Each structure stands twice: as structure tokens, then as C-alpha cells.
């Protein structure tokens, strides 16, 4: 490390050192130990290096909750790039605005999630995509964009498949990745997080790696520990799901149960099955959870919940 303080990209390896074979993550029936989680992060980080992502480069991620998003969060940070999480409710004009305004050089996107065709929306916002080539895009709506990586089946020209990126990383050595990570400092930009844009164009707020100190302090105040099981149905593009679950679970050794989206009955069923101890939500989440529990009581072993904002009622 370039300083005595860890950066975000250090957390998976530190967690693997502490809790190795313990379960770190589950998602739709698949499970990863802390060691396996760290290995996936490194595999992803090597792929990012292999396709040319440089320190300080902005990497926009337009992806629904899934394990690859979690691996990306740490991989982008580990190689010294800057994460730009994009709201999955964005549509063609929105994603073009945020990617261009953030000067993102790389865009990583789900091809599709359920009925939502993200690849089609990209095609709509990139009428000149076929004019360039995979290594040197020239897009009028995305002036800084150099490359696009797509997770899932996609017919868009001049894009790179997620699996191709990972395969390219196979030639990047552990030493190369370690050397790259050693140049990242806690004061470096980590993330450009966009506001909702309710009263105008969304604004990008820049966070450094120092955000992990604040997150750890909250986890200690809350008493979160290795025995906790965190339900994570909050969108990973939002700071709530990113910090209060994705980061805290690795910092405390707690197990994370990731869900693709929020549905109160599914959350409670899974919370019972996984013996979840911590749930999160704004007022709308808690109203739905309480109503669903009243309608069909589950044996939920919750010991703690967070509620960051909402009405007094």
C-alpha cells in the first residue's frame, strides 16, 4: 500500500486473511467464501488491467445487483481507477449524460435484466457505435469513452464480453496486480456518485478511499461482527447498499445475502432461511416488510436494522 491505511481494494484480501473459508456471500443459490471472493476480485482486477484501464480512469458501471458488481467494486478500486455507479433506472439519455459528464473512459453494463434491455438502450444512445472499433471508440454522445464491456448476450458492435475481459486478465501476473495496487493512496478518488437529479441534472459527488474509515466507525458503533448475516437488497449503485452492506460485511466478517431487487415477501422468506440478523431500509421498505410479516409471520432472527431517513411516522 502507498500509505499505512488500507484502500477499498485491499479489503477482500484482508478479509480472506482473517476469515478465509467462512462464507462471505450468497446470491441466488451460489456461495463464495472470503478466500473465493478475494480471488474473484483479483481475477476481475487483472482483466481490467489487461483491457487497458489506467489509474485515475473513470469506470462507469450500469449493472443490477449481482455478484459481478460486488467483485467490480473492489477490482476497480484495487487498480486505482474510479467507480461511477449508474442508476439502473436510467434510460438512454440519462446514461449518456452521466457517462459523458463524469468523463468515463470505460462502461461496463448488463446486456439485460428481466424485461429491461440495457443493450438496446445503449444502442439507441450510440448511433455511431459501429463507426469505430473496439479499441478506439469515437462516439458523439460519449466523447471520453474508449471501451465497453458487456455482461450477458449482446449483439452490439465494438464491445467486449465480460468473459473475454476475464480471459485477457489471465496473462497479468500477481506481481503486476500487486504493483498496481501499491500505487493507490487513501486520498485518491474512489467513486463519483451521482445525485438523483430531482431538481435538475444529476450532480457527481467525488469520494476518496477515506470513506472506508467512516464506514468502519459506524460498524463498530452498531456492534456489527463476524456472526452477523446482512440482507442486501438495496441497489449497489446507491451509497446505502454499497457502504452499509457491501463494505461492512468485508470489514467485520459478516455474511452477505445479496438479492437482485427488493420484494418484501422474498426478503423475509430468505431472511428466515439464512438466519439473517441485519436488515436495512427507508420508510417504504420497512412499511412493506412489516405488512408482509403481519400477513405471513416468519421466524426472523433479526437483531438490528437501519433506517436512515423518512417521516417521523
Brief characterization of the structure:
With 313 residues, the chain is α/β, with parallel strands linked by helices. It is built from eleven helices and 13 strands.
How would the global form be characterised?
Answer: globular
What's the SSE pattern? Answer: HEEHEHEHEHEEHHEEHEHEHEHE
Q: Compute the CA-based radius of gyration.
A: 19 Å
- Structure annotation, total helices: 11
| Unreliable sequence segments | none
> Can you count the beta strands?
13
Largest sheet: 5 strands, parallel
The CA-CA distance between the termini, in Å, is 47 Å
Structural class: alpha/beta
* Strands side by side in the biggest sheet: 4-3-5-6-7
**Helical residue percent?**
25-40%
Mean pLDDT: 92
Give the amount of beta strand, in percent: 15-25%
Can you describe this structure?
Helix 2 (34-50) packs across helix 6 (162-168), helix 8 crosses helix 9 (239-252) and helix 10 (264-273) packs across helix 11 (283-295). The longest helix has 17 residues, at 34-50. This protein has 313 residues and is an alpha/beta fold. The protein has helices at 11-19, 34-50, 67-78, 92-101, 118-125, 162-168, 174-181, 211-222, 239-252, 264-273, 283-295, and strands at residues 23-27, 30-33, 58-62, 82-85, 106-110, 147-151, 160-161, 189-194, 204-208, 229-232, 255-258, 278-280, 304-306. The chain is built from eleven helices and 13 strands. The strands form four sheets. Strands 4-3-5-6-7 form a five-stranded parallel β-sheet. The chain is globular. Helices cover 38% and strands 18% of the residues.
